[in-house]
Amino acid sequence: MHAAALRLLSVLAALALPAAALPNGAPRCLINPAFIATKHGNPQAAGGGMALVAASPTYTPGGAAMAIQVTGIKAFTNGGILAYANVTNPAMVPAGSVEMHVGAFVPAGTMRAQTAQSCATAMAANENALSTVTHASPMKSTDLMTLMWTPPATDVGPVQMNVVIATGTVGQPWAVLAPIMLTPAAAGGQQQHHHHDGGRAQDLLVVFLFVVLKLVVVVVVVVVEQLGNKDDDNDCHRNLLDHGDSHHYDGHVVIVVLFLVLLVVVGDKDDKDQEDREDERPGGGAGSDQGQSGGRGGRYQSQLQGLRK
Fold first, then answer.
1. Exposed / middle / buried, residue 194 (Cβ in 10 Å: 0-12, 13-18, 19+)
2. What's the gap between Cα 284 and its chain centre?
3. Which of 75, 203, 197 is nearest to 145 (CA)?
4. Dihedral angle sign, alpha carbons of residues 180, 106, 22, 119
5. pLDDT tens across 228-256, in order?
6. Nearest CA among 18, 12, 36 for reference residue 170
7. Alpha carbon distance 16, 35 (integer Å)
């Protein structure tokens, strides 16, 4: 009878161990599988079938909170969490710290900020009190299916999202999920927008200058004809017309030469901007460059033909 009671107490103690081992949150500020194993036994293999999936592979500095899904999570009621996003650029880590945690998690269920003392002991700096979170009491799986994370206010470069979840399972009560990387999204988009606006402005400038040059030719022709009409003497009139035709021809030649120089200058700058855009755009190749160059050449040839008419 006494031996049976002892066995029953042992089973009950084993069942209570996962919840009792982490009732008030993780004691550390950094995920250290070796340390956790000394307290809670071996982890579940392959993240226990769980994985992190971000709503977007990029974050917007100063933007709204984004969702980090925990897929493959099984139902439990005595669970817990330790989560943070750390910068990957060592230059962003403050002196005297080994890691810098950024952004802020939106608390769900019994989630709370990790204590400042725990992070100071681990030499982990936090941008925000909620940059590192754990649980205040055992959590339900439904509270951990979606983690909401607010990005840092400024661009800190790529960040790594780290999560360890305690599932309350006897024997292997915890699992380290494979980290995911998030990169800043703002800088690249602004640069591409700048190049796009620059190319459109150049096209408008070419059209404007073409119209101006065409008007100059028309004015020269009209002036020459008016001068010819004012002279009644046939010989002088003939000479003046010949002189006017010479001016007319010379004026066209000068305008054509100036316009060709303009096209070369603007075209070279446009080609340089196009090469920059192709370097920034994934998958840009020679085929797209030739197609765009042909498009510009056809447009300029049409303009030249109009000028000669």
1. exposed
2. 18
3. 75
4. positive
5. 665 555 554 455 445 545 555 555 555 66
6. 18
7. 21
